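Example S7 (structure tokens).
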């Protein structure tokens, strides 16, 4: 397993965020992973976030998981999701600086992190992929933006925050999305991490620098 190391980077509005990065040799793609809601105990050490980062490294991708502002050693305070978009943007820029060009960046988020990641992805055209895990589609209001990057969505069949009937929202706004449902999983994937990893791995193997890297995937 590639060793992870602690890093710190700065957002556009001056907050300093802590993270953990793993850099496999010759990695051409980097994945930023966003954690669940900080007011309910979410941070970069969430078991789901760690699972996503581990699968990324096993697939040859660089990974960066980080704490949103106000969480752990990150400065600032929780902003309800909108200021956290700046955190995601800063994480993408930072990870991009660690990869040799041409490189590409992908984005993943779990729960609250999925909602923030989706909004960021919707306004970028330089991502090579986005994975949303248990996005809180049942939370109102939650307008699902159509990201420009290939989209994978993974949800548990017993997740009250991302009910399967709400997945029609995704089909409406992102008809090309690949949707995977884990039958025995709830919102927390407590016993379903192997199944989650098995659904993430094929998506990760499709990510490459390609045209996204040449368009400026580092930032």
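Recovered sequence:
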């Amino acid at each position: 397993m590639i060793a992870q190391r602690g890093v710190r980077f700065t957002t556009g509005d001056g907050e300093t965020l802590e993270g953990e990065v793993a850099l496999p040799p010759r990695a051409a793609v980097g994945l930023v992973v966003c954690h669940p809601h900080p007011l309910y105990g979410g941070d970069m050490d969430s078991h789901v976030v760690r699972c996503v980062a581990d699968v990324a490294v096993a697939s040859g991708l660089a990974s960066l998981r980080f704490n949103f502002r106000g969480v752990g050693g990150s400065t600032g305070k929780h902003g309800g999701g909108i200021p956290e978009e700046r955190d995601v943007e800063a994480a993408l820029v930072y990870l991009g600086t660690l990869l040799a060009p041409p490189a590409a960046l992908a984005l993943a988020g779990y729960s609250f992190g999925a909602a923030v990641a989706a909004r960021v992805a919707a306004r970028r055209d330089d991502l090579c992929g986005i994975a949303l895990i248990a996005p809180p589609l049942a939370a109102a209001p939650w307008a699902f933006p159509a990201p420009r990057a290939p989209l994978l969505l993974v949800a548990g069949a017993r997740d009250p925050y991302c009910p399967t009937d709400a997945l029609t929202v995704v089909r409406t706004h992102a008809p090309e999305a690949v949707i995977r449902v884990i039958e025995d999983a709830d919102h927390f994937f407590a016993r379903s991490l192997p199944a989650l990893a098995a659904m993430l791995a094929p998506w990760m193997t499709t990510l490459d620098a390609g045209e996204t890297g040449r368009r400026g995937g580092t930032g």
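Notes on this example. The CA atoms of residues 59 and 205 lie 6 Å apart.
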